Amino acid sequence: MLNIVLFGPPGSGKGTQAKFLEQKYQTPQISTGDLFRYNLKNETDLGKKVRAYMDKGSLVPDEITTQMLSDELDKGKSPNGYIFDGYPRTTSQAVALDKILAEKFNEEVTVTVALVVDDEVLVQRLLERGKTSGRSDDVNEEVIRHRITEYYTKTAKVAKHYKAQGKWVEINGVGDIDEITEKLIAVINEAMIKED
Ligand code: ADP
Asked: What residues bind AMP, as annotated (predicted)?
């Protein structure tokens, strides 16, 4: 199995790249943001619990997020693995993901690829996306900046977890979408060779 973690701040292009990788490797994308939005839209109990966090641009508590991810993986094992988009976002989630993959599938994260993009580019991309995405958290600059702050205060330190495992690679997330996809594929292919 190939278990890719796509890492990076909001607006760095994780979702865009996940779609290409999903096709290329036949590994479903698991986006915790999309799962939360599905629950918001359908007004589930989970949706009601997380709305206030998401509206503010704050991270949802780890326990709720990890439970949702674990439930999603219980829906049926993907034979080729997964692309994790937006999870883990805290060190506790990274530890949980290792444990979940080991316990459910006897597997581990193959590699974590971090998309690096300058903050002001992120803000501009998200405001632009907000014009068409229908996402309320993309419209308000204050919420966008709060999401980026959450990234630097809570998420960026997850790098340490993967660096310690030799599973951290950074790539420049600014440039042609196709070129970024090519760089991602090169990193993933190399990690697959190393794993064998
Ligand atoms: P973006 O990367 O553009 O911020 P996402 O769609 O990944 O967007 O996430 C949207 C929101 O969903 C986040 O601001 C946060 O409230 C919540 N969320 C998503 N994934 C996680 C996670 N792993 N841990 C905590 N909260 C999360």
From this structure: 32, 37, 58-60, 86-89, 93, 135, 147
